[in-house]
Amino acid sequence: GDVDGGQLRKDIPEINSEMGRKLFEGDIILPLERNALRNSSYRWKFPIPYILADSLDLNAKGVILQAFEMFRLKSCVDFKPYEGEQTYLKFEKLDGCWSHVGDLQSGQTVSIGERCDYKAIVEHELLHALGFYHEQSRTDRDDYVQIWWDEIIEGFAYAFDKHNDSFLDDLNTPYDYESVLHYGPYSFNINSSVPSITTKIPEFNEIIGQRLDFSRIDLLRLNRMYNCTSSLTFLDQCSFEYINICGMVQSGQDGASWDHTLGKPGDEDHTLVGSCADGGYFMHLDTKTGHAGQSALLESRILYPRRKEKCLQFFYRLNGSPQDKLVIWVKKDDGTGNVRRMEKLHTITADGEHHWKLASIPFGVQTKFRYGFQGIRGDPAKSAGGIAIDDTSLTETNCPTNVWHIRNFTSLFNSTSKGDYIMSPVFYSSEGYAFALQLYPHGRSSSTYMNYMGITFHLCSSPNDGLLEWPAGHRQVVLSVLDQDPDVTHRMSLSLSFTTDPNQLVYGRNDTLQWDRPSITGNFSSFCNCYMGPGVGWNTFLTHRELHWKKFLKNDSLFIFADF
Questions:
Q1: Sorted alphabetically, which Gene3D superfamilies does this protein's record hold (predicted)?
Q2: Same domain, 263 and 207
Q3: Residue 332 maps to a domain
């Protein structure tokens, strides 16, 4: 089955034009006074009250909440359930994807209609609601893009109007080809193969209209407009590029120490991967010297939480002796104001591998705290390396529940053809459902599109099945490809989702429910020694261009997060 019907995901202009909606710039309902971006009375006060109308699809509700979390992580914009306030956002499933601009002070609708339930589309419409117009409507847009008026559907030329300085404020930022608010090249176009917009710098022709996430300049403008000095759920991160190591401290040394280490060929850092001769640092504990049992503790500065949930993510490499260990601790307020009550969160044992791996460690703490990395020497006589950490981040968000680390991706990519796939390990949801993913580096054989990766989600049989609810309906599948930018707030990770329909039938089988037990719906697979249900996913999951544009591929590793 295909979430996208086997077709390319349609963008906002195409969705709205098919609906017959003729809105300002394609998806905007203007306030009576048009200069909402310059008039501070149209600015929202946070948190913004919201209503999720019953008309919304279940998947759309989940995607809207995902978008809220992106705003909280990357800005000071916040949302709260409606409690009778005068001003609010009401999300409804109406005709297309559209929004008003700015706070109208009277309550207003955001339409997340059919095919609009993607994280980046919701972000796009929310940026309109917050007071922003499309990038290509800037006063200076003709310096950067060419509008091909003869290629635009009759009656839609107004959607490409540009605005003067009295109407728009660029907040002293440059034109942004990467903006999530930029039209794509084929917006409102007559001929599906002839663009209506091209870029003056040709390399950006395939970038405009990206629907991954906010760009850096999107966030710069948002945070400038709303005077955000910090984001809500971001706490700490470090790429260890500077000698102050982000305020982290060595403590509790027991004959060993963490060293601020410059990468070298064959021993590169994770941040820059050897791309800069005088950059690319990480923290390293040498386990070839000293004695077994010696340890060193690297601790964060004291942090002050706002939420309970936390997710500590970092890249690590343990290529010393098999007895080496990396232990993650949190040190909490003991009730007297002193941060000294220790709690062990996780232990990673050495595997001797030389590539960087990703750790995601959830924990909950509501008092001031530090987190720490304790490296422990195992057997120096058997060590050929040590323990390394890089690109740490701490956010007050939920950790991904399942992480698929695909190594040596370039070799896999070059040795596969259309229809070939690689299989993930079997993962388990928090409820106990087993599932697996199939990734098609060159797309599924049924796809008519070139230069796309495809992916499918399959339920798998497990010993838990007798205890679980079947069919497994009304549950959201969220698949994300990690942008490995060291700055969490600048990551433009792809995230797509669908919600399981308990009444959906297996394609071509009128008597079998798609989300019933895999032993009923599927076939036995020797790969997992289990029954695998039929797959549902996307033919056009990620373009090959996007794969190499952002930092999805780093150290030849691809990371896919899977939540169910």
A1: 2.60.120.200, Apoptosis, Tumor Necrosis Factor Receptor Associated Protein 2, Chain A, Collagenase (Catalytic Domain)
A2: no
A3: yes
Distance (Å, whole) CA 450 – CA 314:
34
Six token digits for residue 128: 């309109």
SS3 313: strand
C-alpha–C-alpha distance, residues 185 and 358, integer Å: 36
Asked which of 341, 360, 395 is the last residue of a domain, the reply is 395
Structure tokens at 421: 């796939």
Picking from 173, 191, 225, the residue at the C-terminal end of a domain is: 225
User: Residue 33: pLDDT above 60?
Assistant: no
Q: Residues 165-171: what's their mean pLDDT?
A: 81
Mark residue 273 as left, alpha or beta (left: phi above 0; alpha: psi -120 to 50; beta: remaining). Answer: left
Domain extent at residue 536: 403-563
Q: How far apart are CA 377 and CA 323, in angstroms?
A: 7
Cα separations in angstroms, 557 against 195, 222, 281, 541: 34, 32, 19, 17
372 and 516 part of one domain: no
Average pLDDT over all residues of the chain: 92
Residue 139 is encoded by which pair of tokens? 């006063």
1-12 tens-digit pLDDT: 777 666 667 777
75 and 31, same structural domain?
yes
Residue 25 confidence (pLDDT): 66
pLDDT in tens, 422-464: 999 999 999 999 999 999 999 999 888 889 999 999 999 999 9
Q: Which two tokens stand for residue 433?
A: 């459902």
DSSP state of 480: E
Q: What gap in Å lies between CA 107 and CA 100, rounded to an integer?
A: 10
Instruction: Return the number of other C-beta atoms located less than 10 Å from residue 104's C-beta.
Output: 15
Residue 406 φ/ψ, nearest 5 degrees: -100, 110
How far apart CA 341 and CA 218 sit, in angstroms, is 41
- Determine contact, residues 532/525, Cβ cutoff 8 Å: yes
* Residue among 432, 435, 445, 461 at smallest CA distance from 522: 461
Give how far Cα 554 sits from Cα of 399, 440, 514, 557, Å. Answer: 21, 19, 36, 5
Output the pLDDT for position 36.
Answer: 47
Give me 56's structure tokens: 């919304």
| CATH number, residue 251 | 2.60.120.200
Q: Determine the pLDDT at residue 215.
A: 97
pTM over 0.70: yes
Task: Indicate if 123 belongs to the active site.
Answer: no
Q: Which helix (H) or strand (E) holds 477?
A: strand 476-481
Q: What is the pLDDT of residue 35?
A: 47
DSSP track, 252-269: EEEB---EEEE-BTTB--
Indicate whether 467 and 372 sit together in one domain: no
Calculate helix-pair angle for 119-129, 58-74, nearest 10 degrees.
60
Pair (18, 90) in one structural domain = yes
Dihedral angle sign, alpha carbons of residues 34, 38, 42, 47: positive
Which residue reads 């008026």 in tokens?
149
Q: Which residues pair with 298 in a beta bridge?
A: 250, 373
- Active-site residue identified among 125, 135, 268, 299: 125
Beta bridge partners of 376: 295, 325
